[in-house]
Amino acid sequence: MTIKGQATLRTARLELVPLRAEHREFTMKLDMDPEVMKTVAFGRPFTEDEAIQVHTWLMESAQKLPGLGCWAGFSQGDFVGWWILAACPAPDASEGDGPERLIPNKTEYGFRVSPKYWGRGFAKEGAREMVRHAFQDLELDEVIGETMTVNSASRAVMAGSGLKHVDTFFNKYDTPPAGIEEGEVRYKVTRDEWRVAA
Ligand SMILES: CC(C)(COP(=O)(O)OP(=O)(O)OC[C@H]1O[C@@H](n2cnc3c(N)ncnc32)[C@H](O)[C@@H]1OP(=O)(O)O)[C@@H](O)C(=O)NCCC(=O)NCCS
């Protein structure tokens, strides 16, 4: 299958459209919400400038490898959250060292859902579609996800979309979020594992 660009995706309740400039107010609202950001990044809401940078980064994720990118999810026309299939840098790639080197057959997924939709299965529904799209349409070999050990909701979404816990790791941060003492976890599923489980 030849992948030209980022596709619009649909699930039972979600229309997932490639993230656009006009969605910035939605992603910024999530990034600037203390409840949403408790176990993400610095553990505090992003400033307006930081939230603008995040939206730019999310938009740029569509330029890295064909088919990857960030999707804004809508249910009955209302913004629910975003889901991403991001490119993974090659392990030996260093920043500012010529063109960015990426692993072509692997993606890291992620998601943020608006609090008013929490607990209704939306994160899992979108995450499952990300995994399906990565394997079935984009023919990638591996999907990974990472979160803080204490982020039980995110871990449940990863487990519920077919990924398994493969690693716990401890990074040092200048401004660590509360709870980072318990480290971070990596989850993973390969295309073969996903096929067998499907
Ligand atoms: C993590 C997040 C996306 C979950 O969204 P959601 O739509 O409420 O999740 P779902 O309703 O699809 O629930 C999926 C699973 O998570 C579980 N879950 C949801 N919230 C939970 C919580 N606060 N604590 C523990 N488990 C939780 C659900 O019970 C469900 O488990 P199941 O599949 O075993 O039934 C949402 O809480 C969020 O956006 N949080 C802030 C951003 C974030 O943490 N993003 C991930 C960072 S890596």
UniProtKB/TrEMBL annotation:
Pfam families: Acetyltransf_3
One term of GO molecular function: acyltransferase activity, transferring groups other than amino-acyl groups
InterPro entries with a match to the protein in the record: Acyl_CoA_acyltransferase, GNAT_dom, N-acetyltransferase
Domain (N-acetyltransferase) ranges: 14-192
Signal peptide stretch: none
PANTHER family: GNAT FAMILY, PUTATIVE (AFU_ORTHOLOGUE AFUA_3G00765)-RELATED-RELATED (PTHR43792), N-ACETYLTRANSFERASE DOMAIN-CONTAINING PROTEIN (PTHR43792:SF16)
Protein name: FsC-acetyl coenzyme A-N(2)-transacetylase
Organism: Cladosporium halotolerans
